[in-house]
Specification:
It is built from nine helices and eight strands. The protein has 244 residues and is α/β, with parallel strands linked by helices. The mean pLDDT is 95. Bound molecules: adenosine-5'-triphosphate (ATP) and magnesium ion.
Length: 244
């Protein structure tokens, strides 16, 4: 078996790529999948805190891609999400050479069911290196005109490079609805980006807390269900796309 590679991308920054990479990866792992999350956002490390591996990492992705250590030495198991392994980005600097990343992913593929590549915002080196490796691209966008327009540009770039099928996650939908977002509804998000929806996630204090505390989302909440449904869809299920 060889891992399915999923890249997580956006045009605009801060849309929730790293948060959802960890949370969706955690749910895939809870479903019995062996999951590796590689953080490619060099210099803006955050996955270590969200996944609870802060202080446990010795080597990072830059060490691996520069040849300072083999890939498996940089892998740390999340104590928060059993079955989710993480390779963190460096605290600062760092390059993402496409050939070195490709070698790493080929070496790691047999040991995992899913490899998530958390890319940086926009279409820089992490994005360019991830596109030819990925079997699926998750576009994590917030419901605002700028994020959606930039998301469309990223989706087009993926297709132009003969990359993977992009699927849309609309993240941080306000509890009060779309009234103050500058976007009419979920349909307008889909129409603007021209990409099929795979999930709609509420703006939730539970998710915000999970992202800073290294604590898993409690089952039973709408936020948990939205994330779990994305993992279920990745696994081929057909749970509801949007929750009320
Ligand atoms: N559904 C949500 N509800 C509430 N807060 C959220 C949600 N998703 C993400 N956030 C918060 O949004 C902020 C940005 O999230 P995150 O760092 O995951 O974004 P990113 O796309 O990875 O950013 P970057 O482009 O800098 O890599 C964080 O403070 C996170 O806690
Ligand atoms: Mg990030």
């Amino acid at each position: 078996m060889s891992a399915k590679v999923i890249m997580v991308a956006s045009g605009k920054g801060g849309t929730g790529k790293s948060t959802l990479s960890v949370l969706v990866g955690g749910r895939l792992a809870a479903a019995g999948q062996r999951v590796l999350l590689v953080e490619l956002d060099s210099g803006l490390r955050s996955v270590d805190i969200i996944a609870g591996v802060y202080g446990k990492t010795v080597y990072d992705i830059e060490d691996v891609l520069c040849g300072r250590c083999p890939g498996d030495k940089a892998v740390v198991e999340s104590p928060v999400y059993p079955g989710l392994s993480v390779i963190s980005a460096p605290y600062e600097g760092g390059q993402v050479p496409a050939k070195a990343l490709s070698r790493l992913i080929q070496a790691m593929r047999p040991g995992f069911d899913f490899i998530l590549l958390d890319t940086a915002a926009g279409m820089g080196a992490p994005f360019t290196a991830a596109v030819p490796l990925a079997n699926l691209a998750l576009l994590v966008l917030t419901p605002d005109p700028v994020a959606l327009r930039d998301g469309r540009i990223v989706a087009d770039a993926i297709l132009q490079k003969n990359g993977p099928t992009p699927r849309l996650i609309v993240n941080r939908i306000p509890a009060s609805g779309f009234a103050n977002t500058g976007v009419r509804d979920l349909d307008e998000c889909i129409d603007t980006v021209c990409v099929q929806l795979i999930g709609a996630v509420p703006d939730s204090p539970l998710i915000a807390r999970a992202a800073v505390s290294g604590q898993a989302l409690a089952p039973g909440s709408t936020a948990f269900q939205a994330v779990d449904n994305i993992a279920a869809r990745i696994l081929g299920g057909m749970p509801p796309l949007a929750l009320r």
